[in-house]
TrEMBL record, chain A:
Name of the protein described by the UniProt record: Curved DNA-binding protein
Organism field: Chitinophaga eiseniae
Keyword Chaperone appears in the UniProt entry: yes
GO molecular function, one term: DNA binding
InterPro entries per the UniProt record, alphabetical: DnaJ_C, DnaJ_domain, DnaJ_domain_CS, HSP40/DnaJ_pept-bd, J_dom_sf
Any Gene Ontology biological process: protein refolding
Region (Disordered) residue spans: 81-103
Pfam family, one: DnaJ
PANTHER family: DNAJ HOMOLOG 1, MITOCHONDRIAL-RELATED (PTHR43096:SF52)
Regions crossing the membrane: none
Gene3D superfamilies in the record: DnaJ domain, Urease metallochaperone UreE, N-terminal domain
GO cellular component, one term: cytoplasm
Keyword Transcription regulation: no
Domain J: 5-70
UniProtKB/TrEMBL annotation, chain B:
Name the record gives this protein: MerR HTH family regulatory protein
Species, as recorded: Chitinophaga eiseniae
One Pfam family from the record: MerR_2
Superkingdom assignment: Bacteria
Amino acid sequence: MDYIDYYKTLGVSKDASPEDIKKAYRKLARKHHPDLNPDNPEAGRTFQQINEAHEVLSDPEKRKKYDQYGKDWKHADQFEEARRQQSAYESQAGYEGNPFGGGQHYTYTGEGGDFSDFFSSMFGGGGGRKQSRFRGQDIHAKLEITLTEAYTTHKQTFTINGQNIRITLPAGIEDGQEIKLAHYGGPGVNGGPKGDLYITFGIKNDTNFTRKGNDLYCDVPLDLYKALLGGEQIVDTLGGKVKLKIAPETQNGLKVRLKGKGFPVYKQEGVFGDLYVTWQIRLPTHLSEKEKALFQQLSEER
Amino acid sequence: MENTDKLTVEQCSQHYNIATSFLFDLDDHGLIVLMREEQSTYLHYDQLPLLEKYMRLHFDLLINMEGLEAVSHLLERVQLLQTTIRRLGGEVPCY
């Protein structure tokens, strides 16, 4: 657990007035407030640090205690012992034993309102903005599924805050897509509604396909002779295998579209994007003497 | 309290400790939607997350109504762009 320089966090001097502190806090908060930085966890962490610095420096009692012990928090025991010997009356209000014990890491966790271990060990945790509440708190969670799983509508069970939640994931969900489960968040206050649960989906591609919206793309190797003379080729799609006709003299890199063989369109049952197959013609290797001679013969034909 | 999915602006004002005028201002600026039925004006529960967000921005960061309107518009743009970036980022160019 490291010492935190709250003055540095807010960019103010040690003798800054309460107005200066408030001004500095608001300026930084306007920049890093999570409401103004959607999908930016870094801003959320920075805001927590700013918030914590403001919580300490805007409260005269906390600021006094921080100024007194802050730098030398590791020696707080000795200071306190000396103080007790001098006068029992000099003890800090609400102070109980060593205020600097506790966690080993300087960490911020969760959403706004959490405080570092340094803060907790000094001030006993808690504090924070006192906004009147009615509706329960929202919970944000991340869930990772594979592209194969996202291809079909399926049920998924996960645990959030000790509560097992079983949901149906419609096929076609996108990477980074957020879904809201109303009333699965924290409990309301004074009869208020529960908060909501927001789940952001991360999709891990476990296939050889590239997804662009609802379309899929893939490269498929094609034998030289089949490309030259034509034939049939079995191609894997996410929905199963399909047989494609290969026209004679198919060129390397030719792209063919398989209509409706792409990814399902979210919440539109039976509607699919397209699959684009690009033929990658494979040249034979380790030619035999006979093959070399034949190719030589062919080359002389041109 | 009656089991319902809306509350009057007066109840809302009491629960959140805010002036009713704040709610009407947000409504006037198109930031939340109030419902007017007979003699009363209500706020549906699904508007509460928006209300709480604008409360934080207004009371904590001192952003006025015009500022909130601009912020709301820009946040919509940011979210749209973030969706586009995510989509593009997930695409590995094959050609």
